[in-house]
Write a structure and sequence with these properties.
heterodimer, B: 257 residues, mainly alpha, 12 helices
Amino acid sequence: MVIYGVALLACCMIAGIFVGELLGKVIGVQANVGGVGIAMLLMILLADLLRKRGRLSPISRQGVLFWSSIYIPVVVAMAAKQNVIAAVKGGPAALLAGALAVVFSCAMVPLISRIGSANTGVAEDVATKDDR
Amino acid sequence: MNTLFDLLAQVLMRNGLVTAFAFVGVTVWFSYFLSNRLTRGRIHGSAIAILIGLALAYMGGATTGGTQGLADIEILAGVGLLGGAMLRDFAIIATAFGVNLDEIRRAGASAIVSLFVGVLGSFAVGAIVAYAFGYTDAISMTTIGAGAATYIVGPVTGTAIGASSEVVALSVAAGLVKSMMVMTGTPFVARYIGLNNPRSAMVYGGLMGTTSGVAGGLAATDPKLVPYGAMTATFYTGLGCLLGPSVVFVVIRAMFG
């Protein structure tokens, strides 16, 4: 049944957010620490497990797939409820601080993406050459 | 005639979430129409939809004076629920359904490095900008730096170390600028920074950290990348709130008094 998929999703979210809140309390931070990320990991693991055991019927899957496909409209609604006025009112200091942080982080993407993959990449190249 | 409009407004208000479905559906349809007709699909429909969303949010904020963008207009309050944290997180977690666990394991190390570089780098950049604009005390520099991390890290850090409300507001604004830039800019820079595979998406999420920005930006770039970027991004705010009032503040205070 479709509700099984939706309920699986809901349980993952509640469990993840709860653990995130708990982590925040333990570390002494006034924020949820990775709750959604933990929920996602839980979802990946459970989906994998259920799929292997054949316990997730195609109809139950639809309950999850619907919500993952409604994702873009949700993001559009999210954009429409942003406090754009506050961002504009922040003036040049806020604009520059935000913008430069984005530029810095963008520049780091290619560098950090290489970590851990560079070695394996070279090894693979060598392997394929040897094969020839 | 007036009563007719009143009646319609009442129906829309009483069924807020359903109204939001209809409203967002029309917005997305219109965006894909523009994408196909004006740009021949070169600019992704969802990128245009997000831009239209932000423009509408500006109009909503300007007309009502509220902080919730379009959701402050009474008949569109449901947009706030549909785009709120609860349903956003629900949909993000659902995208994890199609994720490949091996990809995550392989990119694990670079994702963790990206989180630390992203948080500390944003603090540094924000603090330098704050200094340049005359906020030379350690508390203000740390708080504005925290805002350059995300608009949640900003006020959490600022409150913890006792920043003035003016500086806290500035930090929130910096975070909002970042989130909106990431939301709209990601599809345009993706090609130049190699953002086309799960690994770089995880690194991107860890470096940017703004969940709403990364979620929106990746959706407009390649929806397949969304879960990877979102997963690391959700750890960023927690890490920022942890490091900001502690390590970062102590370091900045030691350097600038």
